[in-house]
Amino acid sequence: MKNENAGSVRVRVPASTANLGPGFDTLGMSLSLYIWVEMRRAERTVVHFAGEGFEGIPADKENLIYKVAQLVFDAAGADVPELEIGMRSDIPLTRGLGSSASAIIAGLVAANALIGSPLSKDRLFDLATGLERHPDNVGASLFGGIVAAAWDGEHADYVRIEPPRKLKVLALIPEFELATSAARAVLPQQLSLQDAVHNISRSSLLTAAFASGRLDLLSSAMRDRLHQPYRAALVPGMETILEHASDYGALGAALSGAGPTVLALVDRDGATHGELENFMRDVMQKNGIAARTLWLEPDLEGAVCEAGIHPDLFLERIKGEISS
Prior knowledge:
alpha+beta, 2 domains, 11 helices, Ribosomal Protein S5, domain 2, seven-stranded mixed beta sheet, Alpha-Beta Plaits, globular
């Protein structure tokens, strides 16, 4: 039975990291950075922003959240032409942490909840993957944890893997943006059979290592020949970090999505976290790149929706921040 339409909904959606080395466009993991979106019906469409980083993002019907909401309404046969939307985000834009994917998921989940949740999560996943054209980021943000997924152009199949309990993530976030289109432009159109087999074997091993909790296999399993070698010139210092992070206690390291963020996976019980963080920062500094580090957790919940939020709790507060 469908739920009654909600007067106002709020969703929290985690960031994500994709590829995890060899799992190009197929493996993703959610991370404990978040976007919050609140949505309700309105007489006129307007989008409010809380916080920084939204410069240049449309505040009308050209906004991505509004557009993906209309996809849900169309798929469900609903008519909700005008929306009031509030957005707040901790996820840095165009840094390889799935900012666009999390926004897409937030818009889809909020719109679906607003009209009584007629669409299943699997249907929302297909809609999201159709927009992103690959399922790794959107799958991780929607379902949480680690997601292995495949997209055939119409439908995405996936398996969610509970992250190993000891897994912790160190993100090194350079202070420059790297568009996904630019990062994809440097990739080769063809691979040798040897490199193809290398990545198939490593991504299979990585998926099995996550599923079985074999953290000792991550260093070997996260080696890649498909995209990271070709993107190295776009992120100075990345090659050094990927090659030597294990010397400073990392279980494995990878370019996060299309970059420029670089991630190191660590054992939370390890004793060399400070050494690893200093090493990664020093490498960036030696290459003239300003960067910050964040310790993150794998998010286990994915997209979380709360129905019936009192308007004073979010949208009204955002409007107050804008006018003050």
